[in-house]
Protein: Hydroxyglutarate oxidase
Amino acid sequence: MMGNMENRDLIIVGSGILGLATAFLAHQQGRTVCIIDRSDHPVGSSIQNFGHACFTGQADIIQPVAEMAREGWLQAAAATGIWAAETGTYIPAVTEAELQVLREFAEHRGGGQVQLLSGEEVGRALGNPGLPALGGAWLPRDMRVNPREAAPKLAAWLEGRGVEFRWKTQVTAVEDGVVVTNRGEFHAAEVVVCPGYELGGLFPELAEDRGVRVCTLAMSLIEKPARIPDGLAMLSGTSLTRYDGFTALPGAPALRAELAEREPELVGCVANLMVTDIPEGLLIGDSHAYAHSPEPFIDEGVAQLLLDRATSLLGIERPVVKQRWLGRYADSVSTNLVLERPDEKTTIAVVTSGIGMTLSFGIARLILDGESVQF
Ligand SMILES: Cc1cc2nc3c(=O)[nH]c(=O)nc-3n(C[C@H](O)[C@H](O)[C@H](O)COP(=O)(O)OP(=O)(O)OC[C@H]3O[C@@H](n4cnc5c(N)ncnc54)[C@H](O)[C@@H]3O)c2cc1C
Structure:
């Protein structure tokens, strides 16, 4: 217990990607860092996702943070050997309404960020040359990481370089440089709290004030046919109605209406139909449902619907499902980021939208620089 009284420069609560990105940058600055987590390895949102670093689709206002995040992923990959590839994202347009949004996006952001493709080109890029697409787009700045590798490997790398990890330790209160846990008190000059969707367990009033709730997402992993390229990231029409960079475009309402007519079931389960790959196969999802205390059940109809639509874009006739899971992340109706400094030594940071992998290293910079952003 004596070791707990030692005064570190920085304690981070949470070993998800946000806590680890903050630890990585603080370690680079030469600070002594301790990470405390209730689990015995990263198992939160950060391993449950697509590993899609979707910088380009984020809102205009957050692009500087997205750019810092991109630099952070590249730096972390160079230092630690985690896979972070500059693959870009492909988006097939199968209707005129989808293509119109892509045209507007290309016009708005320019060719460095958005390149329009013919239907044939996008089909070939997805490994499905027969895809009846009207056209498509490639977002070359986007990146891919492996969600099952990134956080665990980053944690192991940090641990190997002297960052202290206190696993299986439940934090019950944080105030003014004191972290109270079920294994005693810890002290630091500064404390950063990154508890993800469990924010309410530590700061219930803040969570209620910001309308933080849990979003659950139906996901699956299927076998990957050899013709599908490695490093794949595919968004689709429903994605164009979710990410703020696309929804701000003039063609977005017409696409929303067209999807409601053409794909009512996808719209009904609040889908963002997308696919990425990892060495074990293709990650397919996702639906969105919101609750304070979600039930754990996966709706087979929803899982099957997502599988059916995604595999039809990729020309996979008989998908072989290897795993299914119900992912969880923090969500809020009113903001994409809770970044609070309740006292001089404490920062609380939760990404309240499904973009925490993308922005993690950028938000980590804001945390350490004492800055803020609203979006
Ligand atoms: C299915 C799915 C798909 C997604 N796809 C993408 C994507 O492609 N791109 C993207 O950018 N984002 C995506 N996201 C969102 C992204 O995964 C999250 O935004 C991000 O991982 C959040 O990271 P985090 O570190 O804040 O939280 P987490 O990874 O959940 O980590 C929080 C940690 O805090 C610990 N903790 C909490 N409370 C306490 C406590 N009191 N004491 C001790 N420890 C505590 C937990 O044990 C946990 O380890 C997706 C999410 C899901 C679920």
About this structure: The domain at 89-140+212-332 is CATH 3.30.9.10 (D-Amino Acid Oxidase; Chain A, domain 2). The longest strand covers residues 321-332. Residues 213 and 292 are 5 Å apart (CA to CA).
